[in-house]
## 1
Amino acid sequence: MKKILLASLLTLSAAAMPAMAESFNDTNDILNRSAQIENLQYKIMVQRATQTAIHYMPAVTQTDFLKATRRNFEGGGYNDVVYVNKPFGSDKGFLTANDTTAYAWGTLTSKNGPIVIEVPAATDKLNYFGSVVSQWEVPITDVGYKGADKGKGGKYVFLPPGYDNKLGSKSDLEKKGYLVFETDTYLYGFSFRPSLTNGATDKDAGDYAQTIKMYNLADAANPPKTDYLDATNVAYDSLPYYNETFFQDVNEVIQENPIRTQDKAMASLLKDLGIVKGKKFAPTEQQKKAMNEGLLMAYAHMQSKFVEPDQTVSALWRDKDGKALSQWSFWNFGPQAQLGFPFIDENEVLVDKRAASYFYVTYLPKQLGGSTFYLTGLRDSNGEMLDGKATYKLNVPADTPAEDFWSAIVYSMETKNFVRNVDRVGLSSRNADEMIKNSDGSYDLYFGPKAPKGQEANWVPTGGEDYFLLFRLYRPTSKTFFKNWMLNDMVKISD
C-alpha cells in the first residue's frame, strides 16, 4: 500500500512540474553563445549605470541642494539657512516648487555629532509648514502646527548613525526639552514654507527665516551665529542634471554618509563605474560614456513612469466602471503616504516607485495632511499630451474649493522645473485683481507661447516647450471636495 501511495505521489509531482523541467540538462550552448558577446565589460557598465541612477535618484536631489548653496554663496554649505524675500520665479531651479511662497531651506550634517535646528514659534502673522528629510529624502519629522512642535517652536536634534550617547541619550535629551530623532544618514535637508496671515508679507517671511538657528549639540551652551544666505536675487539651481554631474553626486552620497544595509548591494556594483567609498572618483572615458548611456535609459524609464496612467499619477475623477471622467490626476503614492514615505514595505525597497516620485518632487512631509492638494495635468481634453507650441484654455470655476487660494503653474516636461526665461510661471486667485473675470465668477486661463489678443493678464507662457501643469488648492474646503466638484480639462484652441 505504501509503495502504491508513493508511486501516486511521484506521478502527481511529476505532472505538476513545469514544462521547462524537461530541458533541465539542456545548456542551450550557453558557453559558446556567451563568448560571442562583444564589449561585455562596457555593456555591464551601462546596465549598472542605469540601475544606479534609478536607485540613487532621491539621494542625488539632496546633494544638489548642498552643491547649489556652495556654488552660489562663498563659504556657504552645511548648517546655513537659505531664504528669499519673494516667491520663486523662472530663474530658480527647483523640482516643482511653487511661485507663491517665500521658502526657507538648507542642508545640515551630523558628521561631527548631533545637530540642532531651532524652529521659531508661530506668531500671529507667520507659521511654518515643512519637513526635515534624510539624504534619501525620507521624511524624518514635520515642523510647525502640523509637526512635532505644534506651532510652539522647538529645538530639533538629529542623532547621527552609531551615536555613542556622549552628549546624553535620546531619553536624556528629551527630558531637557529637545525633540530628538535618530537617523541613518549624516546629511539632512529642510524646506519650510511660511503661511502668511493678518497682512504678513513675503518680506516678513524672509525676516522670519532669519530666526531659524542651527548648531552642533556640543555647542548648545554657547551656539555660534547661524549664517543666513539671501537667495532672493540669485539664480539658485538645485536641479539634478542627467549628465556626468549625476554620478559625481552619487559619489558624494557614498563618501559623505554611511552605507545603509539596503544599499550595500548597489554600492558593490558601483565599483564598475569607479565609485568606491574612501577613494577619489576619477572615471575613465569608457566609464563616462557608459554612465551617460545608462543615464539616458534611467531618465526614459522614470519619464515613462511619470506620464503613463496609474504609475505615478492616477485619474482623480472616474465613473462607476472606473473609466476616467477627466484628464486631471492625483499623486498616487498608495500606502506610502500613510507610512511616512519610507518607500519600503514588508518584502522590498520600492526602488521604481521611489525614483519615479523623486523624479519630480522633493521634501514630502512625514504626515501628508490636507493643507494643500495637487492636481497634475499632463493631457488636454482629447487625451493628447500638452504641446508647448499650442495654445490651451483652462476654465477655473467660481466655486473652486480652496479656502486660501488656488494656483496653476507650468513646469518643463524635460526638467520638472519652471520654464526658463519667462516673465510668469503661473497664475493664482491671488492675481484676481489683475485678471479678467467671467460673468459667472470663473476665470479663463490661457497657456501657450503667445498670449491670445486681449488675454495677456490671464496668460501663462510656455516658452514653446512641452510642459505639464500642477493645479494646487491651498486648504481645500473638505477632504472629499472632489466628490461634488471637478476641474475642467485643458482645451486646445490653436496649434
## 2
Amino acid sequence: MSQRVYIFDTTLRDGEQVPGCQLTTEEKIVVAKELERMGVDIIEAGFPISSPGDFKSVVEISKSVTEPTICALSRAVKGDIDAAGEALKWAKRGRIHTGIGSSDIHIRNKFSSTREKILEQAIAAVKHAKTYVEDVEFYAEDAGRADLGFLAQLTEAVIKAGATVVNIPDTTGYCLPDEYGKKIAYIYEHVSNVHQATISIHCHNDLGLATANTLAGVMNGARQVEVTMNGIGERAGNTSLEEVVMAIKIKKELGLYTNVDSTRLFPVSNLVSQMMRMPVQANKAIVGRNAFAHSSGIHQDGFLKHSENYEIMNPHDVGVPKSSIVLTARSGRHALKHRLELLGYRYDKPTLDGIYTRFLDMADIRKEVNDKDLMELVR
C-alpha cells in the first residue's frame, strides 16, 4: 500500500457552506490557485447543479488550475451528474464526486427508501458518471452510523461499477476515533475488490474529533483525506487541513507523507480567513494567533532555554515568521529580561528585580505589556 496520503481540499465546496462565507467565482479562483501552489492533490470546486454561480465556479477553476484534480459534487441523480460532467469539460483532470446515504437513518428518513434501492441507485450513478470522466468518487453519506455489513456491500458494488475512490464519511461527526478506525479496517477486511480503489475519509467536527477520526482512518489504511483550511464547514466544521498535514509530518513513525508545502499553511489560512470573513480562533492549532505564543512564566523560561521544551514544531515549517513571548502578569523575570535586551536594555540583577516589580503592577492593570509599555517602564 502506498504511504502517500492524498489531500482532497473541499474549502471551496463544503467549507463555503458556512453562513456568510460565500465567495464569488473570482475569489474562488484566487483561493484555488493558492491551494494549487500549496500542493493539494484534489480541489472540490463546487456543486454545479446547486446554482449557476457554482456551475460557473467549477468551469472557471477548471480553466485556471492545472496541477490538482478538479472535483465536482453531485447527488446520485442523473441531472446532478450531467451538470457536474458539463462543468468539468475544461478540467485537465476531472473527477465527479457522487453518492447517497448509507445509514438506515438516512435511507428511511431522508430517502424513504430501502437498502436494495439505494444499492441500485448508487451503482447507476457511478456508471453514469463514468460516461463523463474516468475518475469517479462515490460517497456513502453518513457512513459513521451505517451498518458495517451493508457499508461493505455498498463499497464493493460501487468499486465494481467503476468507482476509483470510495469516501467513507463520518457526516455527522458521530464516531469516536477507535470506532471510526475499526470501520475503515472492516472495509479493508471485508471488501474483496477494495485495493482497486482509494478509500477516502471525510469527517465532521460535531464532537471535536474530526482530526482524530481522520488520523485513525489513515492509520487503518485510508489514503485520501477530505479537509478544509481552518477546519471550516457545515455546523461545527470539517477536519482541518493544516492539522492533518502537520500531524503526518511530525509523527514520522506513521511512515506517511503528503505533497503539501507546509510553509504555505499560515499564509493560505490567513487568505481564507480574510476572504470568507471568518476569523481563526486564537488558540486554533497550527495557524491560530496563539499557536506559537508563550505567556506563562514557566513556559517562557523553558522556551527561551531551548525552544523544543515547549514547541513540537518550528513556526517556519508552517509559514509563521517566529514564535512570540507575550508579557502578562504571568510572565517571569527571564521573559522580561529577554524582551528588554531585544530593545537594547541590559540591567544587573538588583535593577532588573526593581523593574520586574513595577512590571507586575503595570501588567495587572494593562493585562498585556507591549514594547511601548516597556519603554515607558524603564524611563
## 3
Amino acid sequence: MKLRHVIIYVYNSFNDPLFKGNLLLFLQHVGRQQPDLRLHLITYEQQDYALSEEQAAHVRADLATYNIEWHPLQWHSGSFKLLKKAYDLLVGLLLVLKLRIGVGARSISGLGTVAGSFAFMMAKLLGLRYYGYQYEPHSEFMLDCNVWPESSMAYRGLHYMERLSGMHADILSTGTVHMVRRMQEWGTSAKVYKLPSCVDETNIYFRPEGRARIRTQYNIPADKQVILYLGKFGGIYYDREIAVLFRVFQQRNPGLFFLIVSPDAPAHIAALMQAEGLPEASYTITRSPYEQVQDYISAADFGVVAVPSQPSQKFRSPIKVGEYLCCGLPYLVCAGVSEDDLVAEKYGVGIVVSGFTEAEATRVYPQVEALLNREKTQLRQQCREAGIAYRGLSQYLATADTIFAQL
C-alpha cells in the first residue's frame, strides 16, 4: 500500500479548543477511515496550553492510533512580534521541507487564514498541494471590529494573502454558505466545500451530573435561572456591551444568575460588570478546560453569543452555538452572524438581536423569559435536534472523507 503523507499546519497549540474541538475531530476520523493516509501535525505550543512531558507522551501515543505524527514547535510572543512570527514561519518552513524530502509529503493544509497563509506560501515554494481548512476573512473581522485599521501592515498583509490563497488553493473548506457563494463569485480555481466547525454530538450533550456539579461548586440553587456567557471579551467579540446586556436582563429579573466562563482576566470582566452596577452576588467568573465545557453549558438555562453584527461576521463559523444546542441550550445571537441567526429562527431555539444595546436587550427580554420558563426536557430535545442538524459532526464526515481522499 502506497502511503499518502499530508502535513497539517496549525498555528495554535494542541490543547487550544480552536484546534482540539474542531479540526482534530476530522483528522481522527479520516485517520481511521483512510489507512493509506499519514498525517503530520505541526502545532505551535504556547505557555497557556502547556503540557507536561507525561501529558505530551500520552497525546503522541493517542494520535499514533489515528496515524497522526505530532511535531510540536514553540510559539513566540512578546516584543518584536513581526520578527517572531517571521522566525516561527522559518522554523515551520524548515520542518515542512524536511517532511517534503524525508517522507515525500505531497500536500499541506492550514487551519484558518493566518496559518493558512503560511501554509500556502510553503506549498508554492515546495510544490505541495494546498488545502485551506476553515477559510474565512479574518482580516475583515479585525477591520470591522476596529482591531486593525485599514492602513495597517497587519490588515493589508493578511487581506492580500487571504485573497491570494483563496483564489489559488487546490481545495478550500469554509463554514457557511455565504463564503461558498463568495468564492464562487470570485471565480476561485479551488474546489470549495462547506465544512463548518462541528460538534461531536456523541460527546457533547446535556449532562445532569455536570449541571449538579457546577451549580454545587458555585453555590447556585437548583431552581435558579442561569444565563451563560462562554468565550472571550473584546477584540472580535463584544466587551462592555456584554455587561450592558446582563444589566438590563438583571433589572428585568433580579433573580437571574450570570455564569461567565472565559479565558480572559477575571479582573477585567469584573470591572465591566461593576461599571454597569451588576450586584456581585448575581454573577461568577471562571474558566474551564475544554473537556468540562459541556458541564458549564448543562448548568445554564440560556446562552449568549457575543459576536457583533458586522458585515464580515456572516462568514464566521464559531463552534459555540453547536455546543450550546447539542447540550440543549437556547441562545441569543446578533443578526448576520454565521448562519446562527437563521438557525435560531428556523428551529425556534434562539433569539436574534441587532446588537447588544439597552434598547435591544429591553425589547427581547420577554422572549428570553419565555425560553427560560419553557419545560426543560422538551426544549433541550428541540435544541439538540437543531444542533445535530446544524453542526453535528456526523453530518459532515462524508465531506471530510471526500476532501482528504484528494490529498
## 4
Amino acid sequence: MQITSVGHAGFHIRTEAGTILCDPWVNPTYFASWFPFPDNSRLDWESLGDVDYLYVSHLHRDHFDAAHLAKYVNKDATILLPDYPVLDLRRELEALGFTKFFETEDSVKHTITGPKGSVDIMIVALRAPADGPIGDSGILISDGETTCFNMNDARPVDMDVIHDAFGDIDIHLLQYSGAIWYPAVYDIPARTKANFGKQKRQRGMDRARSYIEQVGATWVVPSAGPPVFLDAELRYLNDDRGDEGNIFPDQMVFLDQMNIHGNEGGILMIPGSVADVRGKELDLTHPFDPDRIYGDKAAYIEEMAQRFAPVLAAEKASWETGEGSLLEPLRELFEPIMKQSALISDGIGYPVGLVIGEETIVLDFPHRTVRAPLEGEGRYRYGFRIAPELVRTVLRDNEPDWVNTIFLSTRFQAWRIGGYNEFLYTFFKCLTDERIAYADGWFSEAHDDSAVTELDGWEVQRRCPHLKADLSKFGVVEGNNLTCNLHGWQWDLESGRCKTSKGHELRSRKL
C-alpha cells in the first residue's frame, strides 16, 4: 500500500485494487481564515485527482473542498459514502457531478473490487449532532497485507469493532491539533484565556494519545491540522512563538509528545511525502527536507502570507456588503427553526444577543422569537459580536451551518456567563428543517447509562452522558473530578453535576 500525503487530512492511497483519494483540501476556507499547512497548492493535482475512488469524511470545508473537487477530481470516481442519517454530503457531491456511490453501512466491513482486484474497507460513521456538520467518519482500508486507519478528525467511541473486523492496524492517520474557536474568540481576561488554551491544547494531545493506545498501530501519522492563518488580523493564532496556550500545535510538537510518552512509532508526513507500507514495514520519502518548514516556521508562514495575499484579498472581496437592518432576514431564518426544536430551544434556555455591527438582535429562545432588545435589557447570558458582512454572506449563500462558516473562521467575538451550552452551537449548525428535526430527535433519545465501570475508587456509569464515550477508556479521575478526554467535558463525582454544560448529570458513587 502506497500512502501519499496531500496535505492536512488528505491522503492518496494506492492499492492493487485501485486508488483512493481522501479529503483533499487546497482552497482557503472559513472566510479565508484557514489555509492548509504546510502548503499543498503546488502538488500535481491533475494526477492526484485521477482516482478510482473518492472518500470525503464529512462536510467541514477543510475536508470537503467543493471548488477543488469540481476542478480536479475524476467524476467517474466511485464515492465511498459514509452512512449518515441526513443526506447532505451525497447531495453536495451530486451537485458537483459525481454519479457513482458505494453506500456503506456504519462500522460494517465491505469489499470493493477495482481494476486489478479487491480491497476491504469499513467506514465508521459518527452521527451525533456534535460530530461535524451532522456526521463525521473515519475509514479503514486493507489490501490483505496492510491495514490503514484514516481517522482524520473523527472521534469514534468503540475501538473493539475495528479490531474485530481487521485485527492489527499497521498505520494510523489521526488528528491531534485544535480545530475550534475556543478560547481565542472569548471576551475573557488574557491570563484566563491563556490558561484555558493550555488546558485545551494538552487535552487534545492527551485524547490523541489515548486513541493511539487503543488502536495500537505500528505507525502513527499526525494529520488533520493545524491550519495556518495568513490574514494579519489572525496571525496570532499560529503556533510559531512557543506559546503553551496556543491550541494549534504542529506535527513536530505532537511527535515530541509521543516520544516523551514512550511511543516511537510517530512519523512526519508533509504534502508530497510517500509512505510505502508492507504490513509493519514502512519506507518513507519526503519531497524536500522538512526543516525548510519547521526550521524557521515563522519565516515559512510569512512567505506563504506574501504569496497568498492576492487569494486572501479576492476572498474578502467576495463577501456581501450592504446596508439596512438584518432583523427581518434573521427572523425569517431563525424563527421557524426555533419553533421546530422545542428540546434544543429549551436547552439553550435564555435570550442570545447578536451584536452585528451597530445593530443588536436578540434570539429569544424561551419565546421562540427574534426581536430587537427590550428597554432596560441587560447583558445576555450568551452573545456574539459578528461583522455584518459575514452575516450578509451566509444569508446570501443560504448557508445551513454558521458553525462551519462564521464560527470556525474565528472572525467573531463571543461571551458567556456560566458553562458551555451544546444546544446553542447545535442550533447554529442545523439551520434546515431536516437537520434540526434530526438533532432534536437525537437529543430526545435516552442515553444508555445502565453499565458501570470503576475508576480510581469511584463507580461511574460507563457511557459518558455527553456523547456515550466509554469512560473506562476515556475517563480520567483527579480527586473528585472526572474528565472525559474525548471532548474534555468534566463532572463533579460527589454530586454527579456536569461542570461543562447544563444538564448531562453523571451517575457515580465512592467505593
